[in-house]
Amino acid sequence: MTEMNENPLDILPEILLAAGAVLGLLLGAWLPRSRQWIVGLLAALASTAGIVAAAVAATEPATAAFDGAFAVDPVTGTSRIVILAGGLLVLALSIGPMRADPRESEFYVLLQLTVLGALVLAGAQDLLLLAAGYLLASIPAYTLAGFRKDGPGTEAALKYYVIGALLGVLMLTGITVLYATGRGTGYPMLSTELREAPEALLAAGTLGLLAGLLFKAGAVPAHFWVPDAVQGSTPPVAALLTTLPKIGALAALFRLGAVPLADSPLPWAALIAVLAAASMTLGNLAAFFQSDVKRLLAYSTISQVGYLLMPVAVAVRSDEAQQALLYYLAAYAVTNLGAFAVVCALPRAVNLDDYRGLARQRPLLALSLVICLLGLVGTPPTAVFLGKLEIFTAAVDGGYAWLAVLAAVNTVASLFYYLRWIVPAVSRGEGTVLRDGDGDGTARVVAYAAATASLGLGLAGGPVLAMLSGTLTR
Fold first, then answer.
1. Each residue of 67-96: pLDDT tens digit?
2. Which of 28, 80, 188, 233 is the most buried (most CB within 10 A)?
3. Which residues of 207-240 are buried (b: 16+ CB within 10 A; e: fewer)?
4. How far is residue 297's CA from residue 366's CA, in Å, rounded to a whole number?
5. Which pTM does this prediction carry?
């Protein structure tokens, strides 16, 4: 058993983000419209301080705060740093589109609350706290999806909300069943009680709980909202929806499989493996003939979740699973945000053909796009390449060689639709919306930084992987 305490400093990153959101809401009510950017600066400071606090906490032994409800261990620590760093990038992408907007401060507050919900999901070790994290990561995100109040945004928010509410109810029902079955909500207690629980009740509760987490991750069969929500929302919000909540949900799924369900009679590993196979395959097939860049990235993220579910399936079967998941989460986050940064930098480029001639007009931006798209494929020396090697190794080590083979086939197949975007970008000619002076300069800087980080993380993979090992809080 790990040490349990009620030290508020154990959740300092979460406290800083919550305080930043509350203070930002108060400031937004008093600041003139021309100075609403101060709320965004406050959000950036809160996120930066949270990263520092998370890095310091990661050097300490694993512990369980607040009577075991919140775990502070390598999974939580890595998820905190990746989510908060991703939140900073999304903030940077939002500066241009939100400048002098009448609801600029509200946007930054909602963004912080969504990030806070993802943090709670990543560290939750109690079913009730998991439900709270789900709601906190969902409700502000519904508002962000329809923030610009136009037709596509309203449709995106409505579809996102309806599916989220339905699967959220299923999740709460599953939590209720598991509580009745395991006589508790804490993971340590459930890990003992669920070993001899009635299999029918255990299966019903687990499936209900799984529905909500698969929704947040955007995995099959809870993926239907992803393409429409991503296409209808603004590019910065689309970048948020396809990245940060997924990290929290996947960390939560990994913890569920490694702690309360590790010794249960359910075929948890086989179920997650099938969902992983379905997600990566369906996402790839649906992305093949997309012409809208945001829809293409939306289906791409569904396929990426399939790869990320592979180490979740072998959480207790392979010693490499934890390192593989955490490294891939970081690699995917920076690479996916880099691709969306290019989309944000060219807000009037909607279709693939609109990017024709990008290499001639903006060579650095085109290079960043190529690095990020090939990175999502898993091309060396990008971070996703090493991440895929790690998850393939973990899957084989965990007895799922067939899943590793299928993932390799899907990786090769995914090259087709990424090349459909890369080829116009590096071809001669001129896209219809690429004009001098058009675009967001801050987003271009984010794209350059994300592409560089993807390469740097791949080259420094050995030392980074060594830091991701450690024992989960149980």
1. 889 999 999 999 999 999 999 999 999 998
2. 80
3. ebbbbbbbbbbbbbebbebbbbbbbbbbbbbbbb
4. 16
5. 0.95
